[in-house]
Amino acid sequence: MNHLAHALLAGDDEWLQLGGMLGDFVHGQPDPALFPPRVIAGIRLHRAIDVYTDAHPEVLAAKTLLVPPHRRYAGILLDMWFDHCLARDFARWCTQPLDDYSNALRALLHRHDALLPPALRQFRGYMEAHDLPAGYADRAMLGRALTGIGQRLSRANPLDSALPVLVAQEVALQERFEAFFPQLQGFAREWIEAQVG
User: Any idea where the domains of the chain sit in the sequence?
Assistant: First the structure.
């Protein structure tokens, strides 16, 4: 899952949300001298969500819908596409309007600027410039984001041509997302209850 999903799955606790945003930018064991305990819990939740997602039968089935050369990048593509699905139908998954949620998430990153690694500060600027994560509801924005990710990868890749491939499988991917995401929500709630209280 991508940034919108990680924040939403963290619930209303802004420390867990911040940890969810930090999850892709903090490597190894989070340093307790740098991060409050609930932020570390949020980072751990992010990682647990990623493990759960990668092994889920609906996600594995969705990956088979992508043919080479795109299948090799199915993890990235599905993370982004599922955030698109979430953003596009956000009112089904959250009572807060998408634009308000997106603005609040960026404001959270500003409030806790001192805790952000440089790469997340840089990404926050990208979020602001492109109205993310709300912008993921727009297919054209999703296509540009995929191209940008592809340009940052060290080897040649087909991410700049992936959007039409995803759109061609839209109905089947939506079915997989609809079956998967409620289960992921349940997993995240149970994890938070068990690990954070």
Answer: 3-195
